[in-house]
Amino acid sequence: MIFGYARVSTTRQNTDMQIDHLTKSGCEKIFVEKISGSSRDRPELSKLLKQLRKGDKLVIYKLDRLGRSLKDLISIVNSLNEMDVSLISVIDGINTTTTVGRFTFNIFASIAEFEKDVIRERTISGLAAARSRGRIGGRPTGFSVEILKKYEDVCILYNNGVPVSDICKRQNISSATLYKILKHKGIK
Hints:
The chain is of the alpha/beta class. It contains eight helices and five strands. The protein folds into two domains: 96 residues, Rossmann fold, CATH 3.40.50.1390; 40 residues. β3, α3 and β4 form a beta-alpha-beta unit.
């Protein structure tokens, strides 16, 4: 059986063009989803994957309609291969029923994996170079001297018994920030 899967990210978008292409490609049953591709929960895709059997074909308009990420896409395609289900991407010209189609998909996957590794290596090298210059990434570990000077009167007000809610309103800070300042100053 030839199944189709169409997806758009928002309810304002239209699946008509995708459905037209899927119908022209001979799809007998089309699953339509209006949900963000980044969403883990895609009920129509789940239903579709449960219905697929050995020898079936899954036709999609474009690869990005199927997977949330390249890793997700590769995982889905590997599952399809294990079930002996072919994938056809109309616009991308990929058809895993052919040797060239499988080869093309594997090249895309390999290039994406290579790109991910290069980015990771560059990030690690960049962090090491920054550390060697004394810069440490990430969130600041505490309050700067300027911040503490700015809130010097917070400690005075607190020590004089002014209610926390009043101090927070005057200084335009949250109670969590107030308590962090007090803790940093060794109060309380």
